[in-house]
Amino acid sequence: MPTTQPPPSYAIPPSRRRIVAMIVASTLFMEQMDGTVLTTALPTMARTFGVDVAQTAVALTSYMLSLAIFIPASGPVADRFGGRRVLQSAIVVFMAGSLLCSMAPGLWSLAAARMLQGMGGAMMVPVGRLVILQNVPKSALIGAMFWMMLPATLGPMIGPVVGGVLTTYLSWRWIFYINIPVGLAAIVLTHIFIPQIRAPEIIPFDMRGIMLSGVGLAALMLGVELSSHGQVSLPGMAGLCVVGIAGLVAYARHARHVAHPVLDLSLWRVTTFRVSICAGMFTRLATGAIGFLLPSFLQLEFGLSAARSGMLTFVAPVGALLVRVLAVRVYRRWGFRNILAFNAWVLPATCCFLAMVGAQWPLWILVVTMLLLGMSQALQFTGYNTIAYADMPTERMSAATSFYSTAQQMSLSLGICVSAGVLSLSRMAFSPAGAADATAATFSAAFMTMGILAAPASLLLARLSPRAGAEISGHTHEMGQPAPKV
Predict the structure, then answer these.
(1) Distance between CA 143 and CA 149 in Å, rounded?
(2) What is the per-residue pLDDT across 345-360, written as a single tens digit (0 to 9) for each?
(3) What's the pLDDT tens digit per position in 85-98?
(4) Do 272 and 461 form a contact (C-beta atoms < 8 A)?
(5) What's the pLDDT score for residue 1?
(6) What's the CA gap between 66 and 52, in Å, rounded?
(7) Among 31, 87, 95, 198, which residue carries the largest CB count within 10 Å?
(8) Which of 307, 352, 263 is closest to 74 using CA atoms?
(9) Residues whose CB falls within 8 Å of the CB of residue 347, separated by 6 or more in sequence, listed in order
(10) What angle do CA 320, 323, 328 make, to 5 degrees?
(11) Which residues have CB under 8 Å from 55's CB, separation 6+?
(12) Contact 20, 84 (CB under 8 A)
């Protein structure tokens, strides 16, 4: 039995909270940059492996599939072995997966290496977030989230540019080496600044729950992924989906009879947590799809090189960086419900606008569109990632982080799968026989579909109480009086 550590509120002094947030952000930096670097390289990778662009989505979804399988175990593992030890080990696994990706001889070997990366990322990002949530009071949570997300914003900002340049002038294989220096720095800084915090009481490890949830999530995601580019028959796809649903139903029955399930379904009763997950699911479906669709759209429809398409998508993270400094003030002034519900309409509107864009349009229109979208998304995800824990007791933060991270990655993976599936189906409908690349009509159909799927988020967010998250935001409700706690 490990020695009980000081209470979490004293484990990290206030003077170090910003430093710890930045260290955690470096792991987010690796994950975010890894995804955006890869999206600009997809058309080139498709030519290297002799496959269709839609099929290269497996390189993205295999990573997210691995995250969905292993994230549920992140909280219990961190509680048992300590946040610092788990975080450092996860970074090592992530870097090992990056090296194997750079040497992959084919698409499916790349997908396998990406799954190893996902195993590392499954522990790396949720455990880092858990360190922040357990050691920062709710009144300071927006500020901590700001500092944690700020360096992470540099990932998607640098990723498309660096990925485009490396893919154009060297090889897409070089993009995976970027994680190595960042990972080494994160390991050293984690050892210096993050204490080895364990839970005072080690709860039993829900191995059966991990197996049931893992099988269910993996089978369901694999069935959707393979069906998205026609690599499995309809009976095969249906079989995988049935196995996935059966696994998740079996897990739900199992969780009702376990004191500490790996995914605690009772967290669903917390209103702010539930709304953040449900509304965030619709938003992340479209967000994951745009990250997959846009670089290929720019290269195939506008004829841009990987380097130029990377430079154009660069402006979205620039917008995100600009708005983050205003996030605290905006939420304090208008509150979570008003900002999130109104801002949620920007994403579906953007998707529908992108569906109308053609090669004859000037590129500066896309630059402005991406800038505004980046600003909107930064504000939205800061709100989602903060209000989810507004009413969550400190002792349940570990379970909540695992649950939330799993739902988050599932949504992003489904967004890529759905958009890849729409590309494949619309290609058969709109493209000439034997056409290798998707036409403007196929991308239009994909963007429009994702815009429709993103729309319900605002309706769900509008059901939040005006007082939701007031303890975190400091928003006043009526007549200048502090909003009471939800």
Answers:
(1) 10
(2) 999 999 899 888 877 7
(3) 888 888 899 999 88
(4) no
(5) 40
(6) 23
(7) 87
(8) 263
(9) 283, 286, 287, 373, 376, 377, 380, 451, 454, 457
(10) 125
(11) 46, 107, 229, 231
(12) no
Q: Which two tokens stand for residue 162?
A: 């660096």
Alpha-carbon torsion angle 352, 355, 360, 363, nearest 10: 60
Q: Which two tokens stand for residue 69?
A: 């399988």
d(CA 34, CA 38): 6
Residues 410, 284: Cα–Cα separation, whole Å:
9
Contact 94, 87 (CB under 8 A): no
Q: How far apart are the C-alpha atoms of 48 and 235, rounded to whole Å?
A: 31
Q: How many CB atoms lie within 10 A of CB 466?
A: 13
Task: Flag whether the pTM goes above 0.85.
Answer: no
Distance CA 236, CA 58 (A): 17
d(CA 60, CA 289): 11
User: What pLDDT is attached to residue 345?
Assistant: 93
- What are 77-131's pLDDT values in tens digits? 777 777 678 888 888 999 998 888 888 888 888 888 888 988 888 777 667 777 7
Q: Give the integer Cα–Cα distance in Å for 194 and 20.
A: 7
The region, left, alpha or beta by phi > 0 then psi within -120 to 50, assigned to residue 28 is alpha
| Cα→Cα distances 325→328, 397, 473, Å | 7, 26, 14
Compute the CA torsion angle 332, 132, 135, 469 (nearest 10 deg). 30
Query: Residue 408: which of 7, 31, 30, 14 has the closest Cα?
Result: 31
Identity of the amino acid at 59? A
As a three-state string, the secondary structure of the chain is CCCCCCCHHHHCCHHHHHHHHHHHHHHHHHHHHHHHHHHHHHHHHHHHHCCCHHHHHHHHHHHHHHHHHHHHHHHHHHHHHCHHHHHHHHHHHHHHHHHHHHCCCCHHHHHHHHHHHHHHHHHHHHHHHHHHHCCCCHHHHHHHHHHHHHHHHHHHHHHHHHHHHHHHHCCHHHHHHHHHHHHHHHHHHHHHHCCCCCCCCCCCCCHHHHHHHHHHHHHHHHHHHHHHCCCCCHHHHHHHHHHHHHHHHHHHHHHCCCCCCCCCHHHHHCHHHHHHHHHHHHHHHHHHHHHHHHHHHHHHHCCCCHHHHHHHHCHHHHHHHHHHHHHHHHHHHHHHHHHHHHHCCHHHHHHHHHHHCCCCCCHHHHHHHHHHHHHHHHHHHHHHHHHCCCCCCHHHHHHHHHHHHHHHHHHHHHHHHHHHHHHHHHHHHHCCCCCCCCCHHHHHHHHHHHHHHHCHHHHHHCCCCCCCCHHHHCCECCCCCECCCC
